[in-house]
Amino acid sequence: MTTFIEVDVRSVLRAGGEPFGMIMSAINELKPGEGLRLLATFKPVPLFHVLGSKGFTYEAKEIGGGDWEVLFSPGEQPQAKGSVKSAGDDREWPAPVRHLDNRDLDPPEPMVRILAAVEEMAAGEVLSALLCREPIFLFPELAKRGHRWRGGFEPDGTTYKVLIRIGQPESIQ
Amino acid sequence: MLGATLSRWTMAYFVAALCCLLAVEGLMAAGYGFPSAAVAAPETLIVVHLVTIGWLTLIMLGALFQFVPVLIARPIHSNGLPLPTLILLLAGLAGLILGFVQLAGSIGLPFSLLPVGALLFAAGFGLALWNLGRTLWSARPVGLPARFVAMGLASGAATVLLGSAFSFVLSGESVNPQLLDLTANGLPVHIVAGLGGWLTFTAFGVSYRLLSMFTLAPESERASSRAVFYAGATGLGAIVLGGITAICLSGEATVIFSVGAMLSLTALALYGADIVHLYRARKRRVLELNSQMAMVALANLAAAVVLALALAGFGIFERSIPALLFLIAFGWLSGLALAKLYKIIAFLTWLECCGPLLGKKPTPRVQDFVCEPRAQKWFALYFAAVWIATVCLLLGHSIAFRFASLGVLIATGAITAEFLRIRRLADLGAEVKLPELVRPHLLFALVKRR
């Protein structure tokens, strides 16, 4: 059963504020298996896509007075199916020791540079990379090499940040 | 696993599709079908369906099995289904072609092959729809490019259903009065749903993502792109659903076609503006050959629209329809497909060969797999021959059209040879050709089962 953390952004919206950052930080603080109960003054369609790309499913209903309640539930993929996400993955990761900004490179150069950097790093170290799209073809390659990753779009909606934690050598083929 | 892997059978779709394209260009150069035969003659129907089903539909489905997962960042529902799907589609195409030959009176059989072909093809398309539909469904809510693809697939289903209905009437299996009306007046719906809805609308969706990816343009969803979707989807809905309803109720659908045409023109104009914006906002100043040639294909689409409006202004639209359809099928859709194949085949081959070695060994770049200056000449010949062929059709010169078609055939043959060279790693220099490189198979990708 999913437990939902409630975020009510109606007062922020009525005051003319921008609640996106608040919602995203709440999302980032969710523990595995937790969902988000969002209360807003309109149907927050743009969020559906942003959170959809983070693996959340949603259920939206109007609750009267033009207000909406949306339940974002965590999808199954990251926890259940990710073959490389093992126990202990939920612990805090160390700060990244390498940073790459690959936003201005044309594909597949971002993937090439990340894999080149990853091969030079020691087990347990973390790499941080900025991209301009989700690196779809990179993930299977990371999985094959026994590394773990976490990624998502930044609040600006255009930069994709991925953190990669180097796996133990014995799990690398 | 999150992310996308290589689609195992995409290369087989590409090979089958290119064989159909070369075959049909050979037929046109030999004077088979329009303009040597009548527009509605069985010979013309064979040529048309080899282009639209054998070439364009197979290339589109093969590409979608690889790129729908990229559009929505989810793996494909089944990586195994595309092979039985391809077999059904090819069996259906063969049945349709033999059915048309039978219509021409060259095969004497106690039963008609046309509905058999139509049903086999519908089964294959249904299987593709199920696989891609399940994949898209799993990623709801999907972004704009994927919604274009979903709408394109729905139009494709409408095209196949209408075509199947025609096949039952044309083969004499059905004398239902509504189906007779549909066959008599529904051809424009079949063509618009197929070339406009299925092929063009899907190409729009994929192009938004691929063009911005390969030109390094921002990928944000623009209001005008959403307007393209809504105007295009409503226009297609009006022509396909409204058109079929009107034909079944009253036998004709001129008003509803006009409304649908206005909406579709709006969508085309907005799409054109979007592409110009994308081109101006790109960060990559010098475009690769595939992007340059995609721009030529897009210009051909614009030219077809302008030409259609001009011909309608002169009152000679109806008799110019074959020339316009030729320009759309060969200048726009085939041009775009060949241009994008030049990148897609190189990229997929690179990923298959170098993926496992990346970071561990110095590996060749994607561009090391191609030889752009050589391919550029053949693309130039291709487009020039297509334009000449279009003019020949407009002027009604059937002999000149055959020579122009020969040019199209030679150029396509040479471009196909470039694809083969990429797949065989023939253009990789000795200095980057590592002994550890995986040698790719021509027909399928080596996908590790996990």
Task: Give me some keywords for this one.
heterodimer, A: about 170 residues, alpha/beta, Translation Initiation Factor IF3, 2 domains, four-stranded mixed sheet, 6 helices, 8 strands, about 25% helix, elongated, B: about 450 residues, mainly alpha, about 75% helix, about 0% strand, globular
**Radius of gyration over C-alpha positions of chain A, nearest whole angstrom:** 18 Å
State the end-to-end CA separation of chain A: 37 Å
- Are there runs of chain B of 5+ residues with pLDDT below 50, and where? none
Residue-averaged pLDDT of chain A, rounded? 79
Number of spatially distinct domains of chain A: 2
CATH superfamily of the largest domain in chain A: TusA-like domain
Written account of the structure:
The complex is a heterodimer of chains A (173) and B (450). Chain A is elongated. About 7% of the residues of chain A have low confidence. Chain A is built from six helices and eight strands. By secondary structure, chain A is of the alpha/beta class. Chain B is mostly helical. Chain B has a domain of 142 residues. In chain B, helix 3 runs antiparallel to helix 4, helix 4 packs antiparallel against helix 5 and helix 6 crosses helix 8. The longest helix of chain B is centred in the C-terminal third of the chain and has 38 residues.
Quick rundown:
The complex is a heterodimer of chains A (173) and B (450). Chain A is an alpha/beta fold and 173 residues long.
